[in-house]
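Q: Got a minute? One more chain.
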Amino acid sequence: MSKSFYLAVDVGGTNIQAALVKSSGRVLGREKTLSPRSGGPEPILQQIEQVIETLLEEHDLLADRERLKAIGIAIPGVVDPTKGHIVVTPNMELSDVAIGPRLESRFGVPVALGNDCNLGTLGEKWLGAARNAESVVGMLVGTGIGGGIVFGSKLWRGARESACEIGHTVIEIDGPECGCGNRGCLEALASRTAIEREIRRQVDTGRETVLTELLGGNLEIIRSSVLRKALIDGDPLVTEVMNRASEVLGNACLTIRHLIDPEVIVLGGGVIDACSRFMMPVIERIVEADQLPGASEGGRVLVATLGDDAVLLGAVAQAKLHLGKNPFKKKHKTHGASDLPTVTPIGEDLFRVKQKQFDQTFYITVNGKAKTFKSPDQTSADQISPETAPLLVHVDHLVKACKGGPELLLIGSESDRPIELDDSAKAFLQRRAIQWETATTTEAIRDFNEGTRRRALLIFKG
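A: Always. Here it is, folded:
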């Protein structure tokens, strides 16, 4: 049993998500509930307390409270971490609430409070795409656009606790009105809200789009997953609007580079998660064409790897810092290397992971989840002989195996064919700073079982 746990809560306008996390960063349990939309702060606070209590009860920690070291809370608004006080939350009723002292009194452990975008960046710096970078700027592109800055182990919060409001930097003078009241903000040009607005405007002028069919004619809310489907279908309108949003984001990255010059810029959020295969080449092209050189190499733009867990893990990192434990120092940077299940061969073509048995292609994520999936065609069409054709790894193989953001992906096969990654697979891993190694099944499993890095495994069968 682990000696210590942390509890993280991501409070959003739609959902409240909570996770019980080991000191290493491995997520052990989750809870999710809807955020109350009316009634003031009290219903929200009670719901937060309920998800915390549920997780503690599920993992037998209610009566063993000393093993819970701290709680990290992420809030979408301006907060005062020193006092544990929420200053303002524009989209939910939690303004002027001293949440830290309340939860400390209720659960008897220290509580660390932070802005959700700041903590999302902190999470990517701890265990995600920016894990090896010293200076990081995070940009979350969703319904709105937020950001965070981390230097070393320190969040740059600003003199008024409101630094890195990237979404409200003015990109286009006299541009569209933003929700903040200003005009031409990045958020008004490249967020999902801005993308939805532009698509509806174009449809009102007579433009056609597959979205009308996909959404039954109601274009009021266009989810990122639906935008992705339209891009895959080659819809001209969505392609045009998304290309423009990508160009804006690329130029925003240039602005960040020229202003702060971070080692890494990490792009995340729902829009990037869903549409990065289309958007990143546009963004990369603009950044790579920068005419203002630096004195050395650096300034990479990467895709976030932790997904929804970025904020939760950032809340844990903040809680560790609150206790005086620096998660970025080598002695604390265990990354859950010893937490993963062991893969055991139990026959010529059969493997056991915990209580599951696998006789076909399977993968294990960094959080220890072992699953199987049907493998796409593994041969390359331009090969002369099937016996010598390489086993070609596609990006679709990697999306699930790399969930949670491994530092290293081990790929193994029992076939005599060499393992090769196609261009889309290589780009997927490179944009997330994930290293990969290919080997025989036996070698890959051995390296996975004995490894000391934050790693995932993908084994091809047949």
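A: The two ends are 37 Å apart (CA to CA).
Q: Perfect, thanks.
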